[in-house]
Amino acid sequence: MEGGPEAPPGLTLPAELVPWLTYAALGVFVGFFSGLLGIGGGSMIVPVLGLTFVAFGFSPDQVLHLSLGTSLAAMIVSTASATRAHHVLGAVRWDIVKMLAPGIAIAGLASGVIARALPLAFLKIFFLCFMGYVAYQIIFGLKPRPGHDLPGPVGTAAVGLGIGGLSALAGVGGAMLSVPFMMYCNVGFHQAIATSAAISFVVS
After folding, report:
1. Which of 62, 166, 199, 203 is the most buried (most CB within 10 A)?
2. Nearest to 192 by CA among 204, 172, 176
3. How does DSSP assign 135-170, residue by residue?
4. Could you list the pLDDT tens digit for every one of the 204 residues in the chain?
């Protein structure tokens, strides 16, 4: 028979279901390994989505932008859920969130506009450099030495500008930036993790 054997009846999925099932499987994969490795979901969502979009025939010129935007949009749900859970336990330092939020919001919105104007090659290099920083932190277990106070409302808002800008350009929630900053400022590890969830919600 020409064209090889036909697939058994009932094993062929409707074409419109393939993307939905693929993205659902990606959500499970990313969620599992993000929790296992203790890293932000965006650092895994962006590259995996990029490969998926290429496989689905998206234009190469749009793949990275779509991956970054989709990553941030997906994190709205996950970070909101995580923030609520941590808030119930009383672990979120809302005073820090309030001081960081203005800078994060301004820088995040600005980064969205800037990203559209930047050359695609620059965004790729920036993302790879950011992932290199994340990998370096995880592999060597780098932790800042505490012993400093928060820099005050203005200084903390300025830090928020950096966190929001860098995180938005990389399509991540920014936990790898916000947690070290808070630990440097004498915030306990568990409180820093809980507060970073709320910060990531603002970023996304």
Report:
1. 203
2. 176
3. HHHHHHT--PPP-----HHHHHHHHHHHHHHHHHHH
4. 444 444 445 556 676 777 788 888 887 877 676 555 545 577 778 888 888 888 888 888 889 889 888 888 888 888 888 888 889 999 999 999 999 999 999 998 898 888 888 888 898 899 889 888 888 887 887 778 888 899 999 999 999 999 999 998 888 888 889 999 999 999 998 899 889 989 989 988
Q: In this structure, which amino acid lies at residue 128?
A: L
Provide the CA 109 distance to its chain's centre, in angstroms.
16
pTM, two decimals, is 0.80
Tokens of 52: 């998926």
Q: Which of 141, 136, 150, 126 is nearest to 65 (CA)?
A: 126
Buried b (16+ CB within 10 A) or exposed e, 2-33: eeeeeeeeeeeeeeeeeeeeeeeebeeebeee
Secondary structure of 12-74 as H, E, C letters: CCCCCHHHHHHHHHHHHHHHHHHHHHCCCCHHHHHHHHHHHHHHCCCCHHHHHHHHHHHHHHH
Give the closest residue to 204 by CA, choosing from 171, 161, 175.
171
Residue 168: φ, ψ to 5°: -65, -40
